[in-house]
Amino acid sequence: MLTFVGFGVLLGLLGPFGSYLGITLPVRVAHYTVNMVVISLMAVAAHWLAARLVFGGPPPLWASLAIALILAVPGAVVVLGSLWLFAPQVLPHVTFAELCVQTALINVLISVVVRMIRAWRMASSQQAAAAIHLSTPQAPAAPSAVLVLDPLREKLPLPLRRARILGLTAEDHYLRVHTDQGAALILMPLSQAIDTIGADAGLRIHRSHWVVREAVVDSARKEGQIEVKLANGLALPVSRSGRRLLAEARLI
């Protein structure tokens, strides 16, 4: 939420689309902050629904951009109401179509920036975890205990490289690797990761999810959808084809 408020204040200071000419600075800041918070809450709700009902996980970039464009119309209604509240003198000089275009541009820009910030934060957290591990004194390993890493484990943070892999989740161009010691986000296609582990070791329960057979400990129906629970307590959605595979493997 603070991020969206910050964007609103920044837009108020910049005064885009000529708003710096007809609206005073304090009113601009209030106007853009209200708009940013309300429209961002709408976007968060839309992403939650898309993740829950359509993708079974975080929506890919193209879906985020589509949501940003779709919300331009209700977002323009919000902007119109805000102008009526804060700067009614501007209303005769703008059209609803102009507000839709302006809102769409800001929505797309904010969507891209937010995804970049999240990717940077994930990369920073992984680097911090690796740095902590490297700074901790480690007992020298015996020659026979040297770990030969595959392409998948090489991308994991050091604390997770020896962990037991339980499942995989595709998130846009990234891959979330679920282990018995935590999860990490790496850059690798889901299909390549499955080949690395071995397709026979698990099941593709959803187009975005793959699980190791031995990691499945339970299944349940939640809100009309089948979910499987992994050994670490994580619950993942199951598609129709995934349900058939699980039934054939006698895991549900």
Question: Low-confidence parts, pLDDT < 50 over ≥5 residues?
Answer: 141-147
Please write the string of helix (H) and strand (E) elements: HHHHHHHEEEHEEEEEH
Radius of gyration (Å) = 23 Å
- Which term fits the overall shape? elongated
- Report the helical percentage: 40-55%
Largest sheet: 5 strands, antiparallel
Q: Report the end-to-end length measured between terminal Cα atoms.
A: 40 Å
Description:
A hairpin with a 2-residue loop joins β6 and β7 (225-230). The chain is built from 9 helices and 8 strands. The strands form 2 sheets. The protein has a 5-stranded antiparallel beta sheet. Strands 6-7-8 form a 3-stranded antiparallel beta sheet, with no helix packed on it. The chain has 252 residues and is of the alpha+beta class. The two termini are 40 Å apart.
